[in-house]
């Protein structure tokens, strides 16, 4: 399997981001809100992730390259990049794919994109297969910027 050429610079970028992981805000109920601008900026009034207790919640993530906020090419590469972005945020928040509690995936064409989502998930979780996290995949009429896929996850942080 060949990963996109962006992966090596992305690893260095993630290493920097992990070193900088601090909440942007902590609520009175001790919920940390993260919007790490060193990854990519959100395009609206939401944050990329939050932590409540030992649970990390990652918002819907698309297939942007963090280095330049352009979308990966349509198809498998975009689906993979969306999952890699979620993985990167999980690691930034102190978790990893093996601690994923639940996935929710939105696609604009179930028959076209679900097989690619399955391939990417099998690839990324190959070390723990067949213990995949619970997943809901939904076909939606439209995603932001007419994108094809968006993935969100809930992760366990440990005790």
Automatic annotation (TrEMBL):
Pfam families linked to this entry: Ribonuc_L-PSP (PF01042)
Leader sequence segment: 1-19
Entry annotated with the keyword Signal: yes
InterPro entries (UniProt xref): RutC-like_sf, YjgF/YER057c/UK114
Keyword terms of this UniProt record: Signal
Transmembrane segments annotated in the record for this chain: none
Protein's recorded name: Uncharacterized protein
């Amino acid at each position: 399997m060949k990963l996109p050429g962006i992966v090596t610079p992305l690893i260095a970028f993630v290493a920097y981001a992990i070193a900088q992981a601090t909440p942007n805000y902590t609520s009175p109920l001790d919920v940390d809100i993260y919007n790490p601008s060193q990854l990519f900026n959100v395009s609206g009034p939401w944050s990329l992730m939050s932590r409540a207790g030992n649970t990390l919640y990652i918002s819907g993530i698309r297939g942007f390259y963090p280095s330049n906020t352009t979308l990966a090419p349509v198809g498998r590469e975009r689906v993979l990049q969306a999952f890699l972005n979620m993985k990167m945020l999980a690691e930034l928040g102190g978790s990893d794919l093996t601690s994923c509690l639940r996935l929710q995936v939105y696609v604009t064409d179930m028959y076209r994109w679900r097989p690619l989502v399955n391939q990417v998930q099998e690839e990324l979780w190959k070390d723990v297969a067949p213990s995949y996290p619970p997943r809901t995949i939904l076909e939606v009429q439209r995603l932001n910027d007419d994108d094809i896929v968006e993935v969100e996850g809930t992760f366990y942080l440990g005790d």
